[in-house]
């Protein structure tokens, strides 16, 4: 920071006050103590001066500058000091001085003792995990640190955990932001009372030292800042300065952490104005200070800010100082307005952006208070510190320091005011910043802490004009990117809008300011001030109008647009954030009657702004064609405040509505949007690219709809309820461009629409009318009803998860909140309308989330298609809702066919909006409905069922909402003179329905069929829609011949508009352009029209009845139901009419019409009595026929396609069930391999590639599709019952000592220490870790076919989820993943049957045969010398098997590559597969039968391959263990002779199962059954003996002698060899000769349980010891000879298996208790062979008694393998692991993960722990699971599976209360273990089916 104190004396520097002697400088503590004492005296002036001098010297900021000769290089020099010793020294000094001579740490502790910790105030930065509790929060931004959260009581609250985006601070203890009930234990105590006062002398030094220290820091900041040329500080320079200052700022930060006492001292220092003035004014003699002050002024000036100080001051004080004049001149020029200052840098930006002709528009700056923008005066350290913090773009350290001070109340107020004072400057810096994202986050980090507090916000609003400042700053910010609006009148438009392509909008740079504004508006007191202040409202409306009409879309008519701009994202975001959210904030305070005034204010200024807007864009009555903007925030403000006024404030609607002319203008643009939506969906805008569809979707999307489409529709409803209904209806059809279509003629000319768009535009217009007339969101529904309707609509489209429902339901967005207002009502409504479907699994393994699905009564009564249409983003969702509705009706038996959307009763209208229903009772609509019904009946083109559906819906709405019952007499009175035009007599739908219309004159093209007719002389012309008629004079004679008159929608509309305008203002005439807009009159284009007269003679009722006939396809199908059942008229609600198709709808309408008036009832009956004439034949021209045929053909093709697809799907499903189902044996494809029936033929295989069947031959072998994978599942078995838990505290650790793999490893290495290596490798099995598991899907293929298949895969690299180069492929038939082919051994099944016939040879003969067969080299039908295809394939598959696992899992020999090693590896593969199958069966064979594993097993083929290779290594007959088992050997003198050679492993140390496999694989294949049984019998004798040895070691000396004694007595009995007492006593006596028992000290006896062994417990022990061997042997027998396994109870397992293996003599009686010893069949006298075996052990224990005991084979107690047990609540895992440091790199990993097999903590993707290009997870998966790893990603709660070189995301086993995953913990709700899912995961791990069940695999390139 400064040069060392010693150097201070020498350097070139201005003279300073006298210093203490240099000697003192060295002993800091003494100096400090001396100064403290001096300052403690009552007269401390001398001490103070001395201290000042010392500080001046130590903290002088000029030291680094002297290095540079001239001042310009200040920045470089500032960096030049380096973070060297000087800085350290200065800090040391400060610490010493603060402590006043004592130790600094003691000082810290002393200060902390006085901390009144009422607030937590912990500050955190981005990515920190914090909590938010909505139940306890008062402000929506409330957040808690994890510690406070867990120490508080939030059970049952609505809270979530979140990752902080921008940083934040803990609010615990702050009752302004949260309720006190949620405070944690530490901050509950209001502790100010019991904390003692701070002693004066403790902090005395701090008060002197800190001002200098902070000033020094400020000087550094001034020095370091160099205004760069381009007005953009280069990042590097700023960062350099900041790095240098790191220790100082950290020091300040540490001070703040000392607690309240120190904070209050800092507050004093930072806010004291006198201190600041004295030190920084730049007066006085110190040149350095002067220079520093100048730099400060320059920085101010360059920021476009003036320093409002009297300029002359400088002039007077230092007229001579040359440097200072620069500053003075500078300021004289800087008094201009911001407009000038800004313009310079705006222009060059303009050039760089290349905006072309779109020049930005500057507004005059005259209106606003200029000083807000460009005057700044700093009066304290705090203010200048904040200034530099902003200038340096909010460095994190500074922000943290400023925030750490906030718990001090005085500071909080001062800092907030300072922040507000700098607000404009913050905005300017933000706009220029390159890193605006980071900067935004840091700004919000600060402002959220300040403005969330209502009390504080109110205070600042009152004292500092916070609202004025914010609004002005926002206005200025947006002004920088305005362009001229092109809406409506491009040339003369005066309106300006924001340009959405600007960085400011595109990058959302404005959000920090807007978010602050929204935040303060959420406080009632602040919002009230805003709503009362007329000036502010005017400015704000001015701001909102910048967004009115932005992002204008112009329809491309010729070419496709070249470049699709994506600016619409920016536009929607801007309207939502900058306009809508502040609006919702304001609305939330207008809830009660008392707030009427506010609404009036807003509405008034809103209307003024709208009027200005209409004037600015030069709008008269027609919107410009082919353009649309989705952004009308002024309309929406107006609409939402109207809605609130009526709903909550009981305001009279008419009092806030404008005149008719304004209403007409207001409805134009929202209506234009609705029509454009229909155009976009009709593909009329396709040339504008995809983005226009995107806009249409965003407009209705759930986050936007209630700020966009809902207000628009509401505004249209308001206009419709107040305007003339005929005018409104005709406007709608004109906007939708379908006026020409509404003619009675069968052909028409549409001047504005292509024929292919007509139908969908007509549907659009009718759908819009239906929505307009039936939506009640703002017209009388309560909030709960709205919520319910929204929820039902979403659930009807699809079943939804809880979170997606929350997301999809547009709640009134309370600004900025993650808060859902009324989430309690949310839950209660949800439970009322939906049923919860718990998460389930599907057989394919895909996991479902918990879903909500609508209850039956909801489908029955509440399904509302109108709401669904309004809320669907994708059209397919409407179809989906209808399909689900159809399915419900079919299932519940309510309606079998294809239903129409049901008609739903509506909530009653609020009285203010009654006028809306006049739309249903206006002639224009009735004419349209009549015409459409007629056209549909006559089958005119371009009409769909949808149109009919909507027409009927409108008629029904009209009947439901008809005026009071009309008097039936009225009809008789009504004479012809009442008809003021010959369409309909009145405007009531009920009476108009029965009015017959006889003739209609139409204008048709000359080609039309109607032209031929002669017209009755008396008819007058009628054209429903010909636009040209609007140019004809309107004076037509009226004749009462019943002929309908000319009725033109457009003309009517024009006329009405003109009338209204003339009425409303006389001078308006100059404004109105009477000319019709040019696009309608294209005179040349119109074809010749001629007039024809149609005879109609129908009424709406008669048309309906005919439609009924047409729909049902039967004549006279309609029969009035009330003729049979008069009751119907009394109780009209009949359930049978609720659901159904068009026929039902017509019946329902006719019934309602009859109910409404007796006349109608009579007329319906009359019409039905007349025998209906047949429907007139279709007049179909050739062209129409073509289109009709085309439609029909299309329809049929569609149906065919559906049918095909359905068939395909069902086939696929049934195939999937058979082929893929891993767990159900019933429907498996039976494999024709090694079946046991006696067939004479060879086994036949089908090749799934070429489809041929045939045996496998040597030349063309067939193979099984197999997947080879290394597996360590077996090694994970443990011997304790207690399952291991995932460690969640430091104490819990998991050690792998007791795993099966570890135990076997230890055993092998022990054997290798004392015995001959080659012998050791035959005494055990390996493969517990990294064993190779082989599985098949059961399909076979020719090996040559497979090769060509692989070749084709290699060339087609598209589908690679796998790597073909590694031999991976998917089975061509069932697509199961595989990586090798296992050749099938040729041979007939008969042979195997012969081999199974039992022979009656004695066991001695069989033993000899076995020995001979083993000795014979390669006695194979295939001799190995001749290389056949088969043997080649067998070799290659063996190579594959070896390469499947890593070398370390294959090589256990001391001499690498020794054949013994291969030998060991091969029989271990067999062992691994048998053991794993046993585990898949649950660890025992009680279930019996051929399990699925059996059917899918390839053990038979595998055995052939292994046996073939094992026989290449013949064991020297000398060493063959078989001889030791079956022969008595004479004294082995040879062995005694050479002591130095290591002995062989004693037989009793051999693993019997390994011996079994060795013996069997050494035999020629196929093996004979009696040889197999013989081998098993012999090995059983060894096993039994091992059991005795183990047992004898287990018990204590007394037990042994007792047994020895009892057994000896029975030794001469006849069955002595089969009596376990005798054998046991013999074993004990033999072993007693050696030293095996001698070593037992007292400690071991203590371990053995004192329980005496009863015969039962001994029998159980012996059986348990032998069972694992019997199980494996039975499995092996099952596979080799195809015999089924019997099922049994667990307690009988031993006896059943032993008899199945032929160990039990056939004549054995099972009455008395079963004794395992009866299975023994000794090949040689038992006692001789036992004593021979014991001798080997004795000779070993002579030397190594300790190890001798350790090596005895123990009873195997392995439990099934399990994954670690996980805790119930995810939070316990998360809290422990997410901050845990990695043991390798000692950092906290960015993506921590934990292995679920062994509990190891690893860094996912962490480069820190990478070894030889392998990241840690991949490495661990190889070490722990031989290539399979299962990891839980802590920060995502997701499980990831690594399998070899691929990985996949498996899903989560933790679900929230609603059965949903929370990937990446985005929602942060509490998660709980889902036991079923975890079981499935474990099952897939144990059964090695990850590859088959999970479909989404990708390569990880060793980067995980």
List keywords for this structure.
single chain; 1904 residues; alpha+beta; three-stranded antiparallel sheet
Secondary structure class reads alpha+beta
Mean pLDDT: 78
| DSSP E strands, number | 29
**Terminal Cα span:** 44 Å
Q: Indicate the proportion of strand residues.
A: 5-15%
> Segments where pLDDT lies below 50 for 5+ residues?
1-25, 62-83, 310-360, 362-367, 814-822, 965-981, 1012-1043, 1064-1086, 1174-1181, 1220-1240, 1388-1395, 1418-1425, ...
Q: How would a textbook summarize the main sheet?
A: 6 strands, antiparallel
Fraction in helix: 40-55%
Per DSSP, the total helix count is: 79
Strand order of the largest sheet: 23-22-24-25-26-29
Shape: flat
What Rg, in angstroms, do the CA atoms define? 47 Å
């Amino acid at each position: 920071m400064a040069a060392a104190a010693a150097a201070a004396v020498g350097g070139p520097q201005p003279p300073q006050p006298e210093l203490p002697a240099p000697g003192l400088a060295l002993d800091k503590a003494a100096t400090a103590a001396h100064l403290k004492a001096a300052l403690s005296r009552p007269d401390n002036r001398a001490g103070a001066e001395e201290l000042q001098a010392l500080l001046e010297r130590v903290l002088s900021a000029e030291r680094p500058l002297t290095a540079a000769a001239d001042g310009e290089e200040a920045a470089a020099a500032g960096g030049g000091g380096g973070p060297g010793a000087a800085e350290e020294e200065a800090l040391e000094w400060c610490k010493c001085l603060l402590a006043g001579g004592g130790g600094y740490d003691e000082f810290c502790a002393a200060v902390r003792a006085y901390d009144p910790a009422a607030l937590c105030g912990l500050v955190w930065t981005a990515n920190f995990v914090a909590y938010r509790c909505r139940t306890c929060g008062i402000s929506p931004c409330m957040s808690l640190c994890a510690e406070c959260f867990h120490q508080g009581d939030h059970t049952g609250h609505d809270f979530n955990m979140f990752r902080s985006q921008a940083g934040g601070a803990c609010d615990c203890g702050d009752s302004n932001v949260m309720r006190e009930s949620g405070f944690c234990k530490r901050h509950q105590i209001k502790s100010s009372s019991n904390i003692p006062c701070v002693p004066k002398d403790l902090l005395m030094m701090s008060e002197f030292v800190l001002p200098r220290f902070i000033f020094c820091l400020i000087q550094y900041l001034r020095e370091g800042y160099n205004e760069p040329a381009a007005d953009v500080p280069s990042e590097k320079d700023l960062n350099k300065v900041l790095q240098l200052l790191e220790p100082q700022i950290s020091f300040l930060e540490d001070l703040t952490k000392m607690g309240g006492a120190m904070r209050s001292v800092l507050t004093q220092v930072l806010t004291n104005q006198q201190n600041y003035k004295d030190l920084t004014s730049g007066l006085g003699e110190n040149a350095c200070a002067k220079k520093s002050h100048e730099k400060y002024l320059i920085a101010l000036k360059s920021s476009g800010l003036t320093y409002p100080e009297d300029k002359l001051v400088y002039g007077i004080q230092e007229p001579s100082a040359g440097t200072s004049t620069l500053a003075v001149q500078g300021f004289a020029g800087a008094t201009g307005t911001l407009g000038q200052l800004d313009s310079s840098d705006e222009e060059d930006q303009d050039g760089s952006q290349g905006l072309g002709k779109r020049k930005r528009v500057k507004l005059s700056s005259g209106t606003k208070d200029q000083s807000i923008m460009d005057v700044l005066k700093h009066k304290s350290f705090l203010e200048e510190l904040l200034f530099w913090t902003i200038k340096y773009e909010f460095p994190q350290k500074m922000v943290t320091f400023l925030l750490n001070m906030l718990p001090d109340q005085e500071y909080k107020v001062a800092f907030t005011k300072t922040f507000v004072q700098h607000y404009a400057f913050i905005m300017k810096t933000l706009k220029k910043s390159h890193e605006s994202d980071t900067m935004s986050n840091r700004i919000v980090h600060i402002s959220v802490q300040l403005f969330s507090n209502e009390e504080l916000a109110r205070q600042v609003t009152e004292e500092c004009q916070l609202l004025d400042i914010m609004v002005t700053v926002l206005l200025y910010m947006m002004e920088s990117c305005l362009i001229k609006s092109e809406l409506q009148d491009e040339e003369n438009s005066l309106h300006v809008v924001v340009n959405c392509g600007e960085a400011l909008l595109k990058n959302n740079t404005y959000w920090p300011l807007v978010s602050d504004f929204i935040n303060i508006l959420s406080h009632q007191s602040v919002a009230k001030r805003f709503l009362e202040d007329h000036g502010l409202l005017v400015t704000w409306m001015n701001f909102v109008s910048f967004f009115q009409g932005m992002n204008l879309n112009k329809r491309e008519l010729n070419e496709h647009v070249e470049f699709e701009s994506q600016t619409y994202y920016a536009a929607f975001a801007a309207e939502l954030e900058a306009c809508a959210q502040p609006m919702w904030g304001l609305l939330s305070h207008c809830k009660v009657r008392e707030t009427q005034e506010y609404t009036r204010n807003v509405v008034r200024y809103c209307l003024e702004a709208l009027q200005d807007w209409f004037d600015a864009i030069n709008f008269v009555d027609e919107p410009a064609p082919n353009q649309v903007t989705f952004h009308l925030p002024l309309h929406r403000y107006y609409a939402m405040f109207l809605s609130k006024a009526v709903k909550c404030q009981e305001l009279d609607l008419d009092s806030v509505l404008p005149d008719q002319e304004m209403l007409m203008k207001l409805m134009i643009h929202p209506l234009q949007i609705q029509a454009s939506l229909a155009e976009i969906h009709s593909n009329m805008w396709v040339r504008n690219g995809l983005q226009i569809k995107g806009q249409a979707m965003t407009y209705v999307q759930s986050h936007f709809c209630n700020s966009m489409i809902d207000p628009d529709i509401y505004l249209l409803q308001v206009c419709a309820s107040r305007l003339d209904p005929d005018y409104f209806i005709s406007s709608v059809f004109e906007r939708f461009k379908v006026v020409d279509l509404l003619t009675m003629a069968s052909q028409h000319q549409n001047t504005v629409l292509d024929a292919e768009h007509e139908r969908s535009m007509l549907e659009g217009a009718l759908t819009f009318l239906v929505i307009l007339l039936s939506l009640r969101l703002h017209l009388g529904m309560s909030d709960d009803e709205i919520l319910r309707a929204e929820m039902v609509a979403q659930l009807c489209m699809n079943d939804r998860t809880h979170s997606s429902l929350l997301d999809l339901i547009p709640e009134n967005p309370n600004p900025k909140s993650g808060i859902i207002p009324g989430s309690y009502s949310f839950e209660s409504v949800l439970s009322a309308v939906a049923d919860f479907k718990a998460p389930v699994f599907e057989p394919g393994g895909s996991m479902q989330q918990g879903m909500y699905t609508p209850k039956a009564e909801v489908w029955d009564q509440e399904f509302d298609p109108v709401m669904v249409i309004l809320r669907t983003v994708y059209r397919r969702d409407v179809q989906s809702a209808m399909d689900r509705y159809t399915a419900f009706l079919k299932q519940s038996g309510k309606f079998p066919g294809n239903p129409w959307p049901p008609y739903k009763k509506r909530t009653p209208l609020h009285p203010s909006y009654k006028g809306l229903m006049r739309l249903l009772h206006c002639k224009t609509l009735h004419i349209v409905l009549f015409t459409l019904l007629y056209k549909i009946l006559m089958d005119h083109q371009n009409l769909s069922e949808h149109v009919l559906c909507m027409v009927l819906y409108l008629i029904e709405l009209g009947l439901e909402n008809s005026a009071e019952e009309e008097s039936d007499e009225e009809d008789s009175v009504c004479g012809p003179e009442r008809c003021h035009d010959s369409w309909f007599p009145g405007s009531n739908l009920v009476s108009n329905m029965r009015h017959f219309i006889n003739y209609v004159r139409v204008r048709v093209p000359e080609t039309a069929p109607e032209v031929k007719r002669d017209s009755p002389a008396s008819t007058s012309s009628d054209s429903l829609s010909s636009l040209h008629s609007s140019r004809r004079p309107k004076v037509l004679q009226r004749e009462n011949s019943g002929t309908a008159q000319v009725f033109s929608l457009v003309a009517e509309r024009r006329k009405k508009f003109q009338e209204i305008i003339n009425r409303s203002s006389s001078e308006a005439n100059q404004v109105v352009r009477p000319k019709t807009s040019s696009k309608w009159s294209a005179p040349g284009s119109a074809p010749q029209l001629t007039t024809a007269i149609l005879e109609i003679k129908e009424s709406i009722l008669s048309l309906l009845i005919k439609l009924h006939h047409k729909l049902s396809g039967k004549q006279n199908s309609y029969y009035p139901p009330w003729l049979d059942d008069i009751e119907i008229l009394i109780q009209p609600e009949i359930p049978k009419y609720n659901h159904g198709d068009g026929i039902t709808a017509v019946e329902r309408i006719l019934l309602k019409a009859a109910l409404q008036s007796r006349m109608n009832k009579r007329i319906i009956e009359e019409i039905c009595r007349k025998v209906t004439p047949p429907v007139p034949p279709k007049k179909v021209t050739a062209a129409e026929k073509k289109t009709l045929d085309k439609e029909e053909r299309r329809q049929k093709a569609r149906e065919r396609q559906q049918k095909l697809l359905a068939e395909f799907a069902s086939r696929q499903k049934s195939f999937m069930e058979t082929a893929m189902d891993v767990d159900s044996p019933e429907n498996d494809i039976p494999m024709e391999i090694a079946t046991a029936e006696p067939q004479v033929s060879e086994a036949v295989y089908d090749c799934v590639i070429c489809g041929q069947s045939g045996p496998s031959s040597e030349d063309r072998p067939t193979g099984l599709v197999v997947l080879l994978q290394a597996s360590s599942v077996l090694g994970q078995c443990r011997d304790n019952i207690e399952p291991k838990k995932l460690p969640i505290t430091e104490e819990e650790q998991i050690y792998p000592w007791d795993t099966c793999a570890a135990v076997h490893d230890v055993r092998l290495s022990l054997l290798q220490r004392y015995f001959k290596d080659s012998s050791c490798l035959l005494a055990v099995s390996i493969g517990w870790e990294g064993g190779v598991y082989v599985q098949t899907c059961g399909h076979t293929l020719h090996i040559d076919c497979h090769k060509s298949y692989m070749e084709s895969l290699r060339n087609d690299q598209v589908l690679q989820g796998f790597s073909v180069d590694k031999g991976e492929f998917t089975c061509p038939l069932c697509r199961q993943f595989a990586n090798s082919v296992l050749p099938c051994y040729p041979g007939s099944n008969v042979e195997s049957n012969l081999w199974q016939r039992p022979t009656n040879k004695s066991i001695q003969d069989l033993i000899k045969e076995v020995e001979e067969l083993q000795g014979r080299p390669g006695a194979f039908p295939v001799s190995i010398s001749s290389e056949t295809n088969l043997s080649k394939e067998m070799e290659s598959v063996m190579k594959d098997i070896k390469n499947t696992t890593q070398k370390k899992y294959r090589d256990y020999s001391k001499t690498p590559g020794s054949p013994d090693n291969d030998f060991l590896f091969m029989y271990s593969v067999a062992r691994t597969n048998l053991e794993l199958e046993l585990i898949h069966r649950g660890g025992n064979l009680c279930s019996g039968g051929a399990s699925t594993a059996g059917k899918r097993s390839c053990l038979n083929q595998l055995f052939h391959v292994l046996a073939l290779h094992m026989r290449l290594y013949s064991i020297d007959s000398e060493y063959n263990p078989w001889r030791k088992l079956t022969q008595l050997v004479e004294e082995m003198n040879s062995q005694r002779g050479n002591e130095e050679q290591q002995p062989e492993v004693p037989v009793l140390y051999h693993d019997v199962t390994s011996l079994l496999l060795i013996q069997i694989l050494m035999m020629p294949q196929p093996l004979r059954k009696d040889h197999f049984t013989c081998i098993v019998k012999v090995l059983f004798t060894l096993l039994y003996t091992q059991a005795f040895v183990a047992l004898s070691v287990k018990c204590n000396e007394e037990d042994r002698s007792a047994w020895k004694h009892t057994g000896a007595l029975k030794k001469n009995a006849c069955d002595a060899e089969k009596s376990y007492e005798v054998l046991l006593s013999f074993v004990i006596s033999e072993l007693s000769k050696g030293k095996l028992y001698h070593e037992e000290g007292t400690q071991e006896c203590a371990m053995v349980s004192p329980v005496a062994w009863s015969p039962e417990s001994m029998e159980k022990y012996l059986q348990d010891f032998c069972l694992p061997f019997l199980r494996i042997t039975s499995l092996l027998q099952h596979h080799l000879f195809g015999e089924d396994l019997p099922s049994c109870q667990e307690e009988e397992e031993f006896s059943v298996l032993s008899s199945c293996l032929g160990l039990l003599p056939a004549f054995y009686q099972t009455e008395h208790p079963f004794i395992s010893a009866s299975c023994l069949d000794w090949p040689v006298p038992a006692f001789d062979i036992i004593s021979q075996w014991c001798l080997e052990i004795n000779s070993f224990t002579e030397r190594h008694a300790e190890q001798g005991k350790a090596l005895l084979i123990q009873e195997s107690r392995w439990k099934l393998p399990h994954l670690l047990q996980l805790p119930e609540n995810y939070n316990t895992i998360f809290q422990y692991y997410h901050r845990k440091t990695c043991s390798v790199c000692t950092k906290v990993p960015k993506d921590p993960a934990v292995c679920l097999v062994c509990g190891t903590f690893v860094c996912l993707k962490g480069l820190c722990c990478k070894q030889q290009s392998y990241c840690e997870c991949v490495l661990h998966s190889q070490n722990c699971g031989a290539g399979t790893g299962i990891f839980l990603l802590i920060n995502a709660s997701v499980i990831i599976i690594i399998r070899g070189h691929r990985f996949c995301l498996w899903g989560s086993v933790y679900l929230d209360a609603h059965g949903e995953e929370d990937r990446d913990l985005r929602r942060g709700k509490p998660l709980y273990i889902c036991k079923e899912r975890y079981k499935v995961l474990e099952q897939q791990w144990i059964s090695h089916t990850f590859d088959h069940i999970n479909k989404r695999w990708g390569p990880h390139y060793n980067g995980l």
